[in-house]
Amino acid sequence: QAEGEGPQPLAGRHALVTSGPTHEPIDPVRYIANRSSGKQGHAIAAALARLGAAVTLVSGPTRQPDPAGCRVVHVETAREMLAACEAALPADVAVCAAAVADWRVAAEADRKLKKDGSGPPALALTENPDILATLSQAGPRRPALVVGFAAETGDVLAYAAAKRARKGCDWIVANDVSPGTGTFGGSDNTVHLIRADGSDSWPTMSKEAVAARLAEAIAGQFERR
Ligand code: CTP
Ligand code: CA
């Protein structure tokens, strides 16, 4: 243990973290994306590394610097993110914090779409693979602990509990992204940790503090095994 480091309860564990948005190409110069900053996922990767885990961070395009002590795999699309995650297995824990695009353009154009006088093109969409569900249902390659996120509006706890069951992950970190909460792209987060047997609501705190508390909860789970 190097000088200045705290306890390393996750030493010897491999943690896989996804972060950021994905970019889904329309043509060589255009893409579909979302406003995810990657702040929360990157902070989780850093927090797990501080507790001693070997961390693989699979990140979509963000403005975040690569976190210290993590192996970072940079990807653009959901399909690339899934492939990078599968290549990173085995892992003891997976935390899927990425805002994966739900849909991609069904037929990416290999040339720039041009205004040809026939009006705007219609973009047919197709569904992207679900990385969290794939990891949760990976059979013998399933990480022992799989954690997802759920950004919801309305009945946050009920939606997130249903999402946890549907995807087959162990925990869901749910947050309320209604307008006015400032969560998406902001610095603070108000989350609920949902397990199979109940949930805890955490006070509003910085995304770094959420990351540290989640990393502690993950370490606690491994200590209990
Ligand atoms: N997720 C994923 N791959 C996808 C979509 C979502 O890994 N293609 C993960 C996210 O990283 C997050 C969790 O699934 O951990 C929930 O994402 P969310 O967008 O809330 O769920 P969806 O199933 O896409 O449902 P919704 O229709 O509410 O967007
Ligand atoms: Ca989604």
Automatic annotation (TrEMBL):
It comes from the Bacteria. Residues 15-225 are annotated as: Phosphopantothenate--cysteine ligase. One of its GO terms (molecular function) is phosphopantothenoylcysteine decarboxylase activity. Keywords: Decarboxylase, Flavoprotein, FMN, Ligase, Lyase, Magnesium, Metal-binding, Multifunctional enzyme. Binds 1 FMN per subunit. CTP binds at D102, K112, P129, D130, I131, L132, F149, K163, K167. Residues 10-219 form the DNA/pantothenate metabolism flavoprotein C-terminal domain. Its cofactor is Mg(2+); FMN. Pathway: Cofactor biosynthesis; coenzyme A biosynthesis; CoA from (R)-pantothenate: step 3/5; Cofactor biosynthesis; coenzyme A biosynthesis; CoA from (R)-pantothenate: step 2/5. Its EC number is 4.1.1.36, 6.3.2.5. It catalyses: (R)-4'-phosphopantothenate + L-cysteine + CTP = N-[(R)-4-phosphopantothenoyl]-L-cysteine + CMP + diphosphate + H(+); N-[(R)-4-phosphopantothenoyl]-L-cysteine + H(+) = (R)-4'-phosphopantetheine + CO2. In the C-terminal section; belongs to the PPC synthetase family. In the N-terminal section; belongs to the HFCD (homo-oligomeric flavin containing Cys decarboxylase) superfamily. Catalyzes two steps in the biosynthesis of coenzyme A. In the first step cysteine is conjugated to 4'-phosphopantothenate to form 4-phosphopantothenoylcysteine, in the latter compound is decarboxylated to form 4'-phosphopantotheine. This is Coenzyme A biosynthesis bifunctional protein CoaBC. It comes from Azospirillum picis. The chain holds residues 192 to 416 of 416 of the full protein.
